Amino acid sequence: MNYLLSLIAGLLLAFMVSSNGIVGEAAGNYASSVIIHFIGLVAVIAVLLIRKAKFKNLRQLPLWMYSAGLIGIITVLFNNLTFTALGVSLTVALGLLGQSITSIIIDHFGLFGLPVSRFNTKKIVGFMIILFGIIIMALPV
């Protein structure tokens, strides 16, 4: 089930980059970030109310962990800025490469208290394939 959910998240990412980019072109990159995050906030509040969910353990989190919200805003802004110049596929591919590099570092060192998953040869081969694909996508036609 986790594999399927991760796949669905990836499928939604391309739609998100496209729709965010279109909103960015219509409203401007900064205004679109406000619009996009406001709609997300309303949706999450609705889910919390419907599920009668409660916040828990928030006081135990270190203050720096709340930076994820800022990272989300920066991600939307950067995607909006590159969307028209690179297209959806290259924007998403480069974003996924960045995510892959960062996740390898987090896994290898067990950052954020996560289990250690050492970097190995299979991952180098995977990176080479991803990089080769991005180079081919970026070549002029």
Primary descriptors:
141 residues, mainly alpha, 77% helix, 0% strand, globular
Task: Give the gist of this structure.
This protein is 77% helix and 0% strand.
How would you characterize this protein structure?
The chain has helices at residues 2-27, 29-51, 67-86, 88-109, 121-138. The protein has 141 residues and is mainly alpha-helical. It starts with a helix and ends with a helix. The mean pLDDT is 92.
Biggest pleated sheet = none
Question: If you compute it from the alpha carbons, what radius of gyration comes out, rounded to the nearest whole angstrom?
Answer: 18 Å
Indicate the mean pLDDT. Answer: 92
The helix-strand sequence is HHHHH
- As a percent range, the share of helical residues equals over 70%
Strand content: under 5%
Report how far the terminal alpha carbons are from each other.
39 Å
Structure summary, number of beta strands: 0
What's the SSE blueprint?
Blueprint: H1 2-27, H2 29-51, H3 67-86, H4 88-109, H5 121-138
